[in-house]
Amino acid sequence: QLQIVESGGALVQPGGSLRLSCAAPTAHFGGYDIGWFRQAPGKEREVVSCIRHSGTTEYVDSVKGRFTISRENAKNTVYLHMDNLKPEDTARYFCHYACTLHVATMYNYWGPGTQVTVSS
Fold this sequence. Notes:
The protein is 5% helix and 41% strand. It has one helix at residues 101-106, and strands at residues 5-7, 11-12, 18-23, 34-39, 46-51, 57-59, 67-72, 77-82, 91-96, 114-118. The chain is globular and about 40 Å long.
């Protein structure tokens, strides 16, 4: 049964930092591409970043230079370190076994997500 748990979200001031964690208790975790997605109120869910099983990383333009994705396969965990947070980063953040929304949606499952709010 698919299971994903996101954590680390919080209320933070503009310019602040957070580290999100994505725990995925599955066998062969190291063989999966893992993506971080976010959804702001009234907006569609969008991909933010992805780390391939090879270690290659990808970022949406709006977070390049501010966010860093990494993985620790021994702990079945992917992290998203976010620096210089902006109010427009406010959203609920989700991770998934995919780097595109199309593929993630095919699983017909999303974890609970974790809320990031950037406000003074």
